[in-house]
Specification:
By secondary structure, the protein is an alpha/beta fold. It contains 16 helices and 20 strands. It has helices at 9-16, 56-71, 80-96, 98-109, 113-132, 170-183, 198-209, 224-233, 246-255, 281-293, 313-325, 345-361, 396-399, 415-423, 438-447, 482-486; strands at 22-24, 27-29, 36-41, 46-52, 142-143, 149-157, 160-164, 187-191, 217-219, 239-243, 262-266, 272-275, 305-309, 364-367, 386-389, 406-412, 430-434, 452-455, 474-475, 488-496. The chain binds adenosine-5'-diphosphate. The site of adenosine-5'-diphosphate has 16 residues, from helix 8 and helix 9.
Length: 497
């Protein structure tokens, strides 16, 4: 299948280099081992670019640089106005290079160019701009204590932050992590996901162009257990911020007990999206579609358990399936594409594995239910948008995170049944509620145990609004003022007067 969009020459140059190097202490370097790995274009299954493969030795070099930048070079004690200026420049540069970044993201991840260009890239710029505004607003307190003393607090950066990010929103997740960390004066070693390292590396160049001092941000691409594991275990890393699967989050939780470094974890989800019969049905259908098929369903907060009030369940499922069947599937670079390929062969196998499990469990695919192997799709990792009915909340497809374009439509009797079934999961990342009854909306929003509840909307984000999980969806809140808490610690100072 021909991609409809003409590639930006800068993107062609970026992917054609013999291999992309990693950023350590302001320099672009090969891995100490000399190893590289391939990143693949999921629309074609072909190698897109080669990338230096960082492991423990590279992490060691990067942590040393970040340590020096923090302990000696004075990033934390730099004038706030200077940090603000650099972060604002980063935001401007992301916008200036938006077309290039969006194409690179789409090539590497598979997502539609409309999403990359109109959602991810602007949100990444907006996140840096939002945190640029926080730099001089991180206040301590003056405490009215014994008059013989002057007692106050300082909010100081945590130190060196190890940031491990996933492949579903590569540039945006880098922005969510870097923005607050840098605003608060921390230095960073960032490890992008092995499936999608390219936009983080391009962002590294933009950080340099914006005037980021050497060693403040180091970017080490590589694999989870090696590069990621080395970062998690490193005694000189003060904090780990992780977004990814619940299993790896639990491993990080265990691994960091040895050094007691601070940890924040944003993990998986199996979010209930609850549609009451009194909802604006057309809006709910659109919300349900976007809630589960956005980014091919590779979204931790995707509304994958779609609870529909029993009396309109069948009709709603049919309309949803009709819409899902009409969604345009294709390579992300084609501007008409609504559903692109999954990120990798591994993800393709995982999702199609769950399609088989669902059918064996007795669920019925009203639409989709299989890989798309039509003409032009043979080599890419395409799965048809799938709507399952006949799903019970205790089936594996209703309990386990699939991370693909698959929704289970499940009936409920009444409000308490919706809340009971909605909460019947060990995840708690997000939820949706669709109703015209304001009181009901308030009651259900409070009763659902999740870090975000969207009422008559879904997947709404802003840099100012916190995001994170209840239960096994993780701990710590990113974005808004809550990220400032993650990247600062409080010092109490007593001065005898
Ligand atoms: P997924 O299963 O969706 O690929 P992962 O949780 O495996 O999600 O990956 C998210 C990020 O965590 C990636 O950057 C990956 O390299 C990293 N990672 C995976 N395993 C580990 C590990 N054992 N230690 C540290 N980081 C890891």
């Amino acid at each position: 299948m021909e991609a409809a969009l003409k590639l930006d020459p800068a993107v062609q140059d970026f992917v054609r280099a013999p291999f992309r190097k990693m950023l350590i202490d302001g320099k672009w370097v090969a891995a100490a081992s000399g190893k590289t790995f391939d990143t693949v274009n999921p629309a074609t299954g072909e190698v897109l670019a080669r990338v230096a493969e960082g492991d423990a030795e590279d992490v060691e070099r990067a942590v040393r640089a970040a340590r020096r930048a923090f302990d000696e070079d004075g990033w934390a004690s730099s004038k706030p106005a200077e940090r603000t200026r650099i972060l604002l420049r980063v935001a401007d540069l992301i916008e200036k290079n938006a077309a290039e970044l969006a194409q690179l993201e789409t090539l590497d991840n598979g997502k539609s160019i409309n999403e990359s260009l109109n959602v991810d890239v602007p949100a990444a710029a907006g996140t840096f701009r939002y945190y640029a505004g926080w730099v001089d607003k991180v206040y301590g307190q003056t405490i009215p204590s014994d008059p013989a003393f002057f007692n106050f607090t300082l909010r100081e950066p945590v130190g060196v932050a190890g940031q491990i990010i996933p492949w579903n929103f590569p540039l945006l997740m880098a922005a969510w992590k870097l923005g607050p960390a840098l605003a608060c004066g921390n230095t960073v070693v960032l490890k992008p996901a092995e499936q999608t390292p390219l936009t983080a590396l391009r962002l590294g160049e933009l950080l340099q162009e914006a005037g980021m001092p050497d060693g403040v941000v180091n970017i080490v691409p590589g694999f989870g257990p090696t590069a990621g594991g080395a970062l998690v275990k490193h005694p000189q890393v003060d904090k780990i911020a992780f977004t990814g699967s619940t299993d790896v989050g639990k491993e990080i939780h265990r691994e960091t007990s040895g050094t007691l470094k601070r940890v924040s974890l944003e993990l998986g989800g199996k979010s209930p999206n609850i549609v009451f019969a009194d909802a604006d049905v057309e809006a709910a259908v659109q919300g349900a579609l976007m809630g589960v098929f956005f980014n091919q369903g590779q979204v931790c907060c995707a509304g994958t358990r779609l609870f529909v009030e029993q009396k309109m369940h069948d009709e709603f499922a049919d309309v949803l399936a009709k819409h899902a069947g009409g969604m345009q599937q294709g390579p992300g670079l084609d501007p008409s594409t609504q559903v692109g390929p999954l990120v990798s062969q591994e993800q393709l196998e995982r999702v199609t594995g769950y399609l088989d499990i669902g059918k064996k469990e007795g669920a019925k695919a009203l639409i989709g239910g299989e890989r798309n192997t039509g003409k032009g799709f043979e080599k890419g990792y395409f799965v048809k948008p799938t709507v399952f009915t006949g799903v019970k909340n205790d089936m594996r497809i209703a309990q386990e995170e699939i991370f693909g374009p698959v929704v289970s439509v499940i009936p409920f009797k009444d409000e308490s049944d919706a809340v009971l079934q909605g909460n019947n999961t060990f995840y708690g990342l997000a939820a949706g509620v669709w109703t015209r009854d304001v009181s009901k909306a308030h009651r259900v929003a409070r009763a659902i145990r999740a870090g975000t509840v969207w009422v008559n909307c879904y997947n709404v984000f802003e840099a100012a609004a916190p995001f994170g999980g209840y239960k096994q969806s993780g701990y710590g809140r990113e974005l808004g003022s809550y990220s400032i808490d993650l990247y600062t610690q409080v010092k109490t100072v007593w001065m005898r007067i």
